[in-house]
Amino acid sequence: MKQYLLSVLVVFGLSTAAMACPDYSQWGDSYSVTGPQMRSPVRFNVVAGGENYIWNCPNVRPGTDQGAGYFTTAPDFTFDMSGMSGLRLEISVISKCDSALLINTASANWYYDDDDNGNMDPKIVLTRPLDGYLDVWVGTYDGDYCDAILELETFRR
Fold this sequence. Notes:
Layout: H1 2-19, E1 29-34, E2 42-48, E3 52-53, E4 70-71, E5 77-82, E6 87-95, E7 99-104, E8 110-113, E9 123-126, E10 132-140, E11 146-156
C-alpha cells in the first residue's frame, strides 16, 4: 500500500511539474502605458530567470523562433497599453547574464528572443502593436538568475 501511495504521489508531482509553464492568465506587476508615453524609453528593474524550462511547455509556441530559456509562471509585467496605432514597439532587456525575453500580446500571440539586442540580451520589435494587455517575462537562457532592466520604447512606423 505504501508503494502504491508513493507511486501516486510521484506521478501527481511529475504531472504538476510538467504543467508549470508561463501562464498569461496570471498577472505580473501591472502598469497602464500609452504609446506616446513610451516615445521616451520606459524602464523597469527585474530579476531575470525562472523555474520553467520553455521547451517543456506545450502551451507556449512562439512562431518558429522559439529557443531555450527559463521563465517564471506568472509574467514579470502585465502592461495595459493604449494609443498604439501608427507606432512600432521595441521591447528589450539589458542584463548581467544571458537573458531571454518572452511576451504574449493582446492578440494572444507568443514571441521569444534571446540575443537580438546584442551582448547576449534579447529584443522583440512589434511592428503593429495592438491596444490591450501585453504580458512580459524576462528569463535566462541557462537557468541562472541576474539583475536586468526591461525597456519599452515606441517609434513612428
